[in-house]
Amino acid sequence: MVRGIAKDITAQRQYAKELEQQVQWRTQALLQANLLVEQQADQLRFVTDSALTAIALYSIVRHKDTGEVIDLRYELINQMALLMTGRQTDDLIGHTMLEVFSGMKATTVWVQYMELAQNGIPLRYHNHYNQDGYDIWYEVQGVRQGELLVLSFLDITELKQTQLKLEALNKDLLEANENLQQFAFVASHDL
To answer: Which residues constitute the domain of residue 173?
Structure first.
């Protein structure tokens, strides 16, 4: 005598097949989304690296006990920033600003960076940095988003040097004009 039990698993097989198909569709959608994200990341990298402005993204470093801002850590940096600093990516990414530019703490710029990190009020100003072997003038713009800062730097050294030369020439011209007026006064008095 033979006994047997039969169970219809057609519905389960159909459900498994549908699940497998959904997994394939979602995997394909995920691959396409990843490709799109990679393309957008490449486009963003192209935009930032093509900029004539140095751009750097920093994470805020806080004191573990007090929560006070103590430094900024390089997270991303564009090609112009590498050119402007004369450093390599590995010398900056993952390192703090004070590790890389130890003279920074002795400048008023450091105070402004710390204020930006603390209160988040955007900043924009011109600065002369003559620490750590640099002697450059640059325009700085900075914004904070959460625990990140974006600072952009435009090298205005040539412009500032030209301005300083013009101011010196203008001063010389004013002195020469004053001397000429004194000579004219003396000459007219003598005549």
So the answer is: 157-186
